[in-house]
Amino acid sequence: QVQLVESGGGLVQTGDSLTLSCVASGLAASTFAMGWFRQAPGKGREFIGNVIRKNGNTFIADFVKDRFTISIDATKNTAYLQMRSLKLEDTAVYYCAAQSSATGRFDTWGQGTQVTVSS
Q1: How confident is the model at residue 52, as a pLDDT?
Q2: Which of 7, 15, 73, 93 is deepest in the core (most CB within 10 A)?
Q3: Model confidence at 79: pLDDT above 90
């Protein structure tokens, strides 16, 4: 059974940096990548980016690519979302998810971790 557990969220101030972790267990060989999403209050879920398990290549969405990076430690089955220069609008619940190579879909999700940015 695949399980994803995010951690590292919290209350920070504008301009701060924060790193989120996603520890995965029970990942199938067909898990192609780990992705990060966020959902702000009253808004839909946004795709931030993903990291390929095999080679660590990443994709970061344009709206955060100048401030966020994604990495993976395959030995620890852990993906990271490093965020810097945080803004008020980065306040959201952040989720990680496992992406299947068979379907391309993110089919397993963590419970999310809250990031709140205050001024």
Answers
A1: 95
A2: 93
A3: yes
- CA 16/CA 32 separation, integer angstroms: 31
Residue 27 pLDDT greater than 90, yes or no: no
Distance, CA of 47 to CA of 59 (rounded, Å): 10
**Residue 60 pLDDT class (50, 70, 90 cuts):** very high
101 burial level (CB within 10 Å; 0-12, 13-18, 19+): middle
Rounded Cα distance between 38 and 90, Å, is: 9
The rounded distance, in Å, linking the Cα atoms of 83 and 81 is 6
Tokens of 56: 């660590």
75: pLDDT strictly greater than 90: no
Scanning the structure block, which residue is given the tokens 């490093």? 82
Show the tokens assigned to 22. 């996603």
Taken as a whole, the chain contains a residue count of: 119
Q: Is the pLDDT of residue 6 over 90?
A: yes
Residue 8 · residue 93 · CB < 8 Å: no
